[in-house]
Amino acid sequence: MGVTDRQTGFPQRWWRALERHPPPVPGLTGDRWRSPLRGPWLTAVYGAVLLVGLPLVIITGLLDYAAYGPQFDQALPREVGWLRLPPFDWPTRPSWLFRVTQGLHVTLGIILIPVVLAKLWSVIPKLFSWPPARSLAQVLERLSLLLLVGGILFEIATGLLNIQYAYLFGFDFYTAHYFGAWVFIAAFVAHVTLKLPRMVSALRSRPALRDRRRPGQREPLRAELRTPLAATRPEPPDPDDLVATAPGAPTMSRRGAIALVGGLSVLLGALTIGQTLDGRWRRTALLLPRGREPGTGPNGFPINRTAAAAGIQPDEVGQRWRLTVRGGDRLVTLDRPRLLAMGQHTARLPIACVEGWSTRQTWSGVRLRDLATLVGVDDPASAQIRSLERAGLFNQAILQANQVLDADSLLALRVNGVDLSADHGFPARVIVPALPGVHCTKWVAEITFRTGADG
């Protein structure tokens, strides 16, 4: 039967046969990658940064999905099977919660792009090593790496296209991004489980400084960051085959490589974060198209969908507009003058969208809980909001009990002391603390308050 691999039972002659028959593609061998910077230590440094940053991107992304209310089947995608998150009521406090989670998800995701690319650069020789695996265990590891690399590149590409409003997918962004995220999460967890001990040992592998003030303290990172180009040397050969077999002369030190990647990340962050900080900082968000020139005046802040794009006709929001409020067996029809005659409440609240931009404005209108009381629902379990917009993914929304009853949850009629503009939802729109912007329904036509007995 011949000698077999102890781990897999596969005959070793299979792997040797693969080694003797490389693919007929000239130049695709690990020998062509000659940078003396590559090695376990630099790969581990980039990996350590991603080990801290990527879980934050994952967690904020999942929190943002939860903010859309999947328990009401209004988060996209709706049908996710066993990937459905545990249901819970998204809080309304702090009012900036969704602004922070979505802003962090987008901004940090963009900041980490140079680190991701640098990490891929550091391990690229392994992509061309032959044979690609020498055991079944390595085959499984390669498959997990394929899912890991493919998953993160897919998430980056679709995320960037979405925030640029470049809908070139040919598929639904929300569905693809959500399922793609779970593929990446599974591969990421598997990769960290397999490689964490190796990363830790690689970080400790470089020559270290000794701190005279603290004898015995070893600081390999500081030592490497003090190493100039002239003293840069290849790392010793490693079992992962990351070190070049015939390294060339260095053109950059390792500290230069780290500084380059870090500088690019800082630059991307500086050109992105203004969309979340809002105000004068918005003009610095050069990488984001939405709202850099939102207009002037009290209504001069970003929008995602104009009244024209939503198909709102002027006569629908003119004198004949009426709001229908339902609750149990009661129905009340209100025009805008009557709404303005009711008790008005003013709140300064943020509004944030999936693309990462947000803004904070001063809204005035009727509390949603006052409208619920008007139709005899003092303790609403939920509220369904319908818009005049007939098409679109978000022409209606369902609000949880805590979102209806919050003192700052409004049917807003005015913003910053003036009437809403048509593009911002005139004659009335919903504003709720910490609610995703797409569920702050514009051009509201009907509100139905439900009790627990309504199901």
TrEMBL record:
This protein's record includes keyword Transmembrane: yes
Classification via Pfam families: Oxidored_molyb
Residue ranges occupied by any Oxidoreductase molybdopterin-binding domain in the UniProt entry: 318-451
Keyword vocabulary terms for this entry: Membrane, Transmembrane, Transmembrane helix
Chain segments carrying region Disordered: 209-248
Alphabetized CDD domains for the sequence: SO_family_Moco
Stretches with biased composition (Basic and acidic residues): 209-225
Entry-linked InterPro entries: Mopterin_OxRdtase_euk, OxRdtase_Mopterin-bd_dom, OxRdtase_Mopterin-bd_sf
Transmembrane segments: 41-63, 103-124, 145-167, 173-194, 257-277
Source superkingdom: Bacteria
Protein known as: DMSO/TMAO reductase YedYZ molybdopterin-dependent catalytic subunit
UniProt source species: Micromonospora vinacea
